[in-house]
Design a protein that fits this description.
Elements (H helix, E strand, L loop, with lengths): L2 H7 L2 H18 L6 H8 L3 H29 L1 H22 L4 H15 L2 H9 L7 H9 L4 H16 L1 H7 L1 H14 L12 H8 L2 H32 L3 H17 L1 H11 L1 H20 L5 H30 L3 H30 L3 H32 L7
């Protein structure tokens, strides 16, 4: 496999549009996380309230991914993305213009931001339908690298909030979103040979298959860990190491950048070596890194290094999971992207909220990190149990034409 073959295989303007749409959507999806220190100080929130505030958009995005998955099957990924992006832009402007300044108003905004998180169920089918099986890992890794938008939020939002106020940052976020939408409308194209719309019976048929539940759990760990940490790290660095909002945002941005950067690498390596083998190594690595983080090192350098290691494993794991999904469920990618993406978001909600609850109840983040490390171990055990069956059955049934 080389870059020339990859460029010839699909439609690179659509792949770029999917990435940019996803990137800007993710930037606003976790916006409350980077702004969390300033919002919490302004509204005088306790740790549990802070955790729930940053976790709510993740949960809303998770649930709405199923809706978007169905919408993609009905009207195509391009139109589904257009509808969602317009809703988010209108919501951002409405919040900013209303001058709302309360915890309940912020939670209402979090629900709107969940629509941006549901972009996952649009961007990946939009890219996937243009590429053959041997390029699925790389194509979906590139489109999925749009989760790097979380880096932009962590990098710029705290500084802009310090200069202009956090409510104005919410309004400013609509500008890059609108520019990305214009590019998306101009160059994105729905892929050839779209799958026919799925009815409730089709969803029921997919959900009855054990492999579907396994993928949902696997992504709940990898993407759940990534998105939960992306939302929580600015508050974590502020609380654990007493960094100011801007410096905490910089540290969070570096961690998130590491996880975002390697998602396409995870997909490409899985294309070459097989998703099962790569994902097994990554789950083990993530469990060890999260265990280390749970000890709450007094040294910022050690804590930062452990979090970067965890994000690297989780980010590559995101790409590896979606190297496998199209091999097994290519005809149901709209349904599966919604279902798998939903559980990824649920995992993120759990991690972000449990860290806040853990801090509120025990004065430490350790319990939240330990439980999630345990989930990574469970995912590794399940993958080890089914890998032989997958490699045999998928090939015999004609599911897979790429390495698994």
């Amino acid at each position: 496999m080389n870059s020339r073959d990859f460029l010839k295989a699909g439609h690179w303007p659509t792949l770029f549009a999917a990435f940019l749409y996803f990137d800007m959507s993710f930037m606003v999806w976790i916006l409350l996380g980077p702004l969390g220190v300033q919002i919490a100080a302004d509204l005088k929130l306790n740790p549990a309230a802070k955790g729930f505030m940053v976790a709510l958009p993740v949960l809303a995005g998770a649930l709405l991914r199923v809706v978007n998955g169905a919408l993609v099957d009905r009207i195509g990924p391009k139109r589904a993305g257009l509808v969602g992006q317009v809703l988010v832009i209108v919501g951002l402007i409405a919040f900013w213009a209303s001058g709302a300044h309360s915890y309940h108003a912020v939670l209402a905004l979090g629900l709107v931001l969940g629509v941006a998180g549901a972009s996952f169920a649009v961007a990946l089918p939009l890219a996937s339908r243009w590429y053959p099986p041997q390029f699925q890992g790389l194509a979906l890794g590139i489109a999925g690298a749009g989760n790097s938008g979380t880096v932009l939020a962590a990098l710029f939002a705290p500084g802009l909030a310090a200069a202009f106020g956090w409510t104005n940052v919410i309004g400013l976020a609509a500008i890059p979103l609108a520019l990305a939408l214009l590019i998306y409308v101009l160059i994105a194209r729905d892929g050839p040979n779209p799958a026919p719309p799925k009815g409730l019976a089709d969803y029921a048929r997919v959900i009855k298959q054990p492999d579907a539940w396994l993928f949902m759990f696997y992504y709940g760990v990898t993407f759940g860990g990534f998105s939960g940490l992306a939302s929580s790290l600015p508050i974590y660095f502020n609380t654990q190491y007493h960094l100011n909002a801007v410096t905490a945002g910089y540290c969070a941005a570096a961690c998130v950048f590491a996880g975002s950067l390697v998602r396409p690498i995870g997909g490409a390596v899985a294309d070459r070596l097989g998703g099962v083998k790569v994902l097994s190594v990554l789950y083990a690595f993530a469990a060890v890194a999260l265990l280390a983080v749970s000890f709450g090192f007094a040294s910022l350098a050690l804590g930062f290094a452990s979090l970067v290691a965890a994000m690297l494993a989780l980010g590559m794991g995101n790409g590896a999971v979606f190297q496998l999904v199209p091999q097994r469920f290519r005809a149901e990618m709209g349904v599966m992207t919604g279902l798998v993406g939903m559980t990824g978001g649920v995992g993120g909600f759990y991690l972000a909220s449990s860290l806040g609850v853990s801090k509120q109840a025990t004065g430490s983040y350790q319990a939240g990190f330990l439980v999630f490390a345990t989930l990574a171990v469970v995912a590794l055990a399940l993958l080890t149990q089914v890998k032989r069956r997958w490699r045999t059955d998928w090939s015999l049934d004609g599911f897979a034409s790429a390495r698994i």
